[in-house]
Amino acid sequence: MRVEPFDVRFHPLAMGRTYRHRRKKQQESRPLSLGSDEKYLDLVKWLSDQQWLPTCKLSPVLFKETGRGMVAKENIPAQSILASLPSSILITVQTVAKSVLSDVFLNTNCCFSTQQILSAFLVWQKHLGKDSHWLPYLNILPNRYYSPVFCSDEVVNAFPNMIGDKIYRMQAKIEELYDSLIEAIPDKCCDHCDKPYNEIFSQECFKWAWFTVNSRSVYLSPLVNDSCNINLTDANSIALAPFLDMINHSDRAKVNVLFDETNRSYSIMTLVPYKKDEEVFINYGGHSNEKLYLEYGFVLPTNRNDSVSFTSEDIFKATKSVFPTAELPKNRYNFLKSHGFLTDLYCSNDGLSWNTRVLIFVSFEPLTVELGEIQKVIFSASFRLPSQEIMNSILTQLFSRKISLYNRSIDSLKKLSTLESHCSITINCGIELLQKYLAILDKNASSYSIQ
């Protein structure tokens, strides 16, 4: 009798606990297909009814790390059109001007931003429910966003000031836009539901809509965007693009935006190829993880645009802790300010920024050295940083203060993550951001041999 060999590759139980654990993790991390999801199928049918035709085979999936995205269901060569939409499907300012909401924006001397107008349109359409022409699109939009703007003051205050201040500025900006919208809304009731307009346009709904537009709008050149009679505070250059906005961002994606004026269609072309089952990406622009976190509520695993920012005060303090007698005379300060050397102070995975190098150099130079001599050194091809020993001392102070600051924030955020469960995803993402900053500081410390 012939005995067949026992192939353990197809028998998980034979591999023991380690194999089963690894296989379970692989299954858990495997993206979940949403191609048969009813909401997605409704959207595709609705788009088809609007004369939309797919240009390549894409399918929605749910990724554990990055959420919903689109994968290629076939090999996609470079120069392929990922998606093309007729202009009638785009939601633009002109779309709003032709809707019932035109009463709000046309019969007033007030000026509005394009994002403000599109946000108001989303709130209005969402309140129409099943009577909205855009219902299939509204149904696939996220119900919530994970920007720290939605977190409590206690969470915001747990971040370093440079991040917390930006969160508060975003909150203030959105509130200001909301208040100016409410002032322009007529004092009347909706013909659809009999509710007063100011009840329909609640602050909570507006904030949701603002982040929807902020995170999903695409650039549309004002040259091809239809003009309208609404008074705008900015260029009429954004639109909402159903289906296309389901594609996630990557800083490594390369795309071209095309608008065909003959058939009035908006298209995205990929400049890089994709293999079957790979996730397809577009590029929002050169955004750092901090910007992605604040405005969109996520961070990328790796991001070439990341950096750790410093203030001029950070550098002055670090220098003075090493050289207590160090001073920055007014003429040196004015020189630095007039030449823009007090901004763009940071370190990245590529090292210290030029301005950081200059500021460190100027801040420790003895007062006996004339400003003219300092300028000659800075603008010469032979500009060099201080000696290794001096740099180690200054950077040790500079980096260690940042490291301590970030570690304190991480500890505070970890405690709040258990107390504010509704905000835990946002908090954990913020912790990940700070940990990436720590990694950048560690890499820079290693490059300067700081122990």
Automatic annotation (TrEMBL):
<dbReference type="InterPro" id="IPR050600">
    <property type="entry name" value="SETD3_SETD6_MTase"/>
</dbReference>
<dbReference type="InterPro" id="IPR001214">
    <property type="entry name" value="SET_dom"/>
</dbReference>
<dbReference type="InterPro" id="IPR046341">
    <property type="entry name" value="SET_dom_sf"/>
</dbReference>
<protein>
    <submittedName>
        <fullName>SET domain-containing protein 4</fullName>
    </submittedName>
</protein>
<dbReference type="InterPro" id="IPR044429">
    <property type="entry name" value="SETD4_SET"/>
</dbReference>
<feature type="domain" description="SET">
    <location>
        <begin position="54"/>
        <end position="285"/>
    </location>
</feature>
<dbReference type="Pfam" id="PF00856">
    <property type="entry name" value="SET"/>
</dbReference>
<dbReference type="GO" id="GO:0016279">
    <property type="term" value="F:protein-lysine N-methyltransferase activity"/>
</dbReference>
